[in-house]
Amino acid sequence: MNVVDMNSIVMIDIENEDEVIRVQEKSGISLYELAEKYYKSKDGLKAIFALVNGEGRDLLYRIGKPCTVKFITLRERLARLTYQRTVFFIYLMAVNRILPDTSSVLRYPLNGGIYTQIKNISNLSKDLAYTIEKEMRNIIDANYVLQRQIIRRDEILSDNPPESADSDLINFVKNCDVQEVFDYSCEGYRARFYDPLLPCTGLIKCFEIVPYEEGIILRVPQFENLEGLPEYRDDVKLFEAFREISKWRKHIGVKYINDLNNRIVEGAYHDIMLVTEAFQEKKIADLAEEIIAKDRRIILIAGPSSSGKTTFAQRLCIQLRANGKKPLYMGTDDYFLERNQVPKDENGKFDFESLSAVDVELFNKHMNDLLEGKIVDMPVFDFITGSKRYGTRITHAEENQPIVIEGIHALNDELTKAIDDNYKFRIYISPLTALNIDGYNRIPVTDIRLLRRIARDIRSRGKTAKQTLNEWMSVRDGEIKNIFPYIHRADALFNSAFIYELSVIKPLVEHGLYEINRNDEEYIEAERLLRILRCVKPITDINTISNNSIIREFLGGGIWVK
After folding, report:
1. Does 107 fall in a domain?
2. What are all long-range contacts of 38-44, with beta carbons under 8 Å and residues at least 24 apart?
3. Low-confidence residues of the chain, pLDDT below 70?
4. Do 174 and 202 contact (CB within 8 A), yes or no?
């Protein structure tokens, strides 16, 4: 509880870009009031969140004692997520005003936004979408103040829980480690969140409503464009993949996180593990049959960090073999240019993630030679010397033998520019969907990959959670430049997500995240991830998970990635 003495004066140090401003203010001033009065970023971005003595605080927080304040803008991911959640709240509020007898749910990321559906409306008209957008803009123009009540865990589980703590919330909190819930209200509308929102509706400037299939895409600023909207691209394959997994989850009775938590409490989660694995195996087998039916020989696999590319590629090879093929498996790393030819980034470091770092001409020559049945002396790149070695991988491809290629540029046509398209089959792999907390509270897919990477780095690469978090922004930059622009080129999408994965990852990463110090710049992100993990019941018994499972890349015990 943020209790303050409204009659005293407090000293506040505001870290404003490269200077510190010391001010005196009456105790009880909110961070929002403080930002409006004193904060101005060089790029004109508004304060969205803040650190008070290193602790993350929303702008409704009131200062009661001397402290240091650092405001956070849309440049930081936590601020972008806060902004997006507030847009979601305004959307839900607008739908409630227009259609008070129904409600809307947030489904999954799509086309630069979030795909939503309004209950009991299967054929949503453009006129209704326009009416919702107009009402959202009315709410924003009115600049309503949001009222927030923080409900603590002990209150929820007490003999006399607050009125807002319904049976669903009580059951959810009982099954996990959630410590607090944010109950927001605005002009008679209420919604429950597990992370904070902005203090008023007028801070929202940029969003878009797009009618899509049976619902609405609510488009919001993304990582690559802080104040505008990303280019609209209709990812039909992505939508179909999301719709398929949603139907499958409904079939097995796990719609939201608490459904999974209940199964874990009951000891009935092993079946979910087995069925999930069977579902993925079927999808891989279907892909292998499609590749053979279309007589494609160059199979190109790409996906962002921690998608499970290595295990997936190996399992695809197994399925191709089961269909009578003898796939040749390779990566593109061995085709790096000599170290002295690799371009450097803006910081003067070798940019190995750039396509310009790859010997594209040699790669294309070798692939075409293999397709023609010629003997090829394939290189092995020595990362110590920074040069290619020859003589150890002399091979050839038999007639109709598929070549499975994994690499971040695999979907970029420039990588295979000299190879006939009729030979190619492109696959994009990613954990496409996360199991949301409920219809209002999403878990970003990016966070699933980040937690996977932390688990793997701690287990097998000798890195701390702090180190992985420090590197993550650079990883994301590379994905945005080299992978995401080419997703639409994929012939097929493979969803490598597991319904239960946060529960098995939690025991592996939780301690590492807690070790991050409040003075570390990674602390605020670590705390955000911990809030996600507190929503899930842990699973420590993973013996049911097969040793060829994609998730084993991150848990350990896999046969392809140790």
Report:
1. yes
2. 38/14, 39/14, 39/71, 40/16, 41/17, 41/71, 41/73, 42/17, 43/73, 43/75
3. 1-7, 223-227, 562
4. no
477 and 522 inside one domain: yes
pLDDT number for residue 88:
95
Domain final residue, candidates 219, 250, 284: 219
Tokens matching residue 273? 């593990």
Residues 523 and 428 grouped into a single domain: yes
Are residues 193 and 440 in contact, defined by beta-carbon separation less than 8 angstroms?
Answer: yes
The answer to whether the CB of 358 falls within 8 A of the CB of 352 is: no
Determine, yes or no, domain membership for 168.
yes
Q: Same domain, yes or no, for 153 and 89?
A: yes
Nearest Cα to Cα of residue 456 among 496, 508, 504: 508
Measured on CA atoms in the order 6, 181, 136, 221, is the torsion positive or negative? Answer: positive
Give the pLDDT confidence score for residue 286 in this predicted structure. Answer: 97
Structure confidence at residue 180 (pLDDT): 94
Which residue segment(s) compose the domain that 366 sits in?
328-401
- pLDDT given at position 532: 95
Residue 252 is encoded by which pair of tokens? 């097995």
Residue where a domain stops, chosen among 73, 96, 118: 73
Burial class of residue 62 in the structure, from the number of CB atoms within 10 Å of its CB (0-12 exposed, 13-18 middle, 19+ buried): middle
Domain count, the chain: 4
Grouping H, G, I as helix, E, B as strand and the rest as coil, residue 45 is coil
pLDDT (tens digit per residue) in 124-182: 888 999 999 999 999 999 999 999 999 999 999 998 988 888 899 999 999 999 999 99
- Residue 485 domain-assigned (yes or no): yes
Q: What local confidence, expressed as pLDDT, does residue 280 receive?
A: 95
pLDDT given at position 386: 87
Same domain, 382 and 460: no
Is the domain of 155 the same as that of 268?
no
Contact 370, 353 (CB under 8 A): no
- Residue 2: Cβ within 10 Å count: 13
Non-local (6+) Cβ contacts of 6 within 8 A are: 26, 27, 28
Dihedral sign of CA atoms 537, 539, 545, 547 in order? positive
Same domain, 355 and 318: no
Q: Which amino acid is at 405?
A: I
| Domain match, 157 and 279 both | no
What is the reported pLDDT for 545?
A: 95
For residues 206 and 242, state if they share a domain: no
